[in-house]
Amino acid sequence: MELLVHDALQPALLKQVQDAWAEAGEDNVAQITFDIQDYHASPEQAAESAQTVGADMLVLSHLVPPLPNPYLNRAFLRDAEDRFDGPIVIGADGLLFLMPSGGDSINKTNLF
């Protein structure tokens, strides 16, 4: 079994954050928010990478912007699920993934 843990940045949501900073007159913060797009993958790109390497599960971690609650997961993923055949998990504190040696499953547990 193969598990890919990948960073992810959702450009559409980040644009809203950037616009809010700009409207607040925080031009430097708005520019930094724009610049970070250069060194993070979108959920769609992470899904394509997982598909290419043959991963069985994709975990998105180091999310930008951070999601305040799971109701935004769908907006964050957009069409990433169309680009990867396996499950996509939005990473969160307390998630534990177990992959028993020689096993054929990835077990996800929430420690909290």
Write a brief caption for the model.
Helices cover 34% and strands 23% of the residues. By secondary structure, the protein is α/β, with parallel strands linked by helices.
Q: Please report which band the strand proportion falls in: under 5%, 5-15%, 15-25%, 25-35%, 35-45% or over 45%.
A: 15-25%
Please state the average pLDDT score. 94
Instruction: Give the termini distance in whole angstroms.
Output: 25 Å
How many DSSP helices? Answer: 4
Strand adjacency order, main sheet: 1-2-3
Poorly predicted regions: none
Radius of gyration: 16 Å
Which percent bin holds the helix content? 25-40%
- SSE order: EHHHEHEEE
- Overall form: elongated
Biggest β-sheet: count, sense, barrel?
Answer: 3 strands, parallel
Q: Which structural class is indicated by helix and strand composition?
A: alpha/beta
The number of strands is: 5
Task: State the main characteristics.
4 helices; two-stranded antiparallel ribbon; 5 strands; 112 residues; alpha/beta; 34% helix; three-stranded parallel β-sheet
